[in-house]
Amino acid sequence: MINILLVTHGKMAEGMYSSVGMLIGKAENFDFVCFDKDMGQDELKEELDKRLADVSDGKQYLIMCDIKGGTPFNVASRYSFKNDNAAVFYGVNLPILIEAIISREGKSLGQLAEYLEGVSGTTIGLSEI
């Protein structure tokens, strides 16, 4: 099963992790890292090194970040550049996170990433009055 690691600015990841538990229950192989204002890039890298230590052992990770070009995205992207067992998805929101969790079974990392990119546009919209 593909592991999902949520990495965002501030406490967003913690809040989304909690919301996932409320909406679909405890998800296996799902964790989060918060990039707090008191952390530096090196500290975030150390935290990701701990969480992704087994990526070189063949475990696959989808790292979901909030903002393309932000520190969580930039640090996480180094893992996907170095290892085919990691992919980075940016622009995460709660619906796409839940979709990733419930849709990962039976998919390769590449298939899951492509699928999520394809359906991501359906997770936002403007309600008609």
TrEMBL record:
InterPro entries: Bacterial_PTS_sugar_comp (IPR051471), PTS_EIIA_man-typ (IPR004701), PTS_EIIA_man-typ_sf (IPR036662), PTS_IIA_man (IPR033887). GO terms for biological process: phosphoenolpyruvate-dependent sugar phosphotransferase system. This is PTS system mannose-specific IIA component/PTS system mannose-specific IIB component. Residues 1-129 form the PTS EIIA type-4 domain. The keyword Kinase applies. Keywords: Cytoplasm, Kinase, Phosphotransferase system, Sugar transport, Transferase, Transport. CDD domains: PTS_IIA_man (cd00006). It holds the Pfam family EIIA-man. It is found in: Cytoplasm. The keyword DNA damage does not apply. One of its GO terms (cellular component) is membrane. GO terms for molecular function: kinase activity.
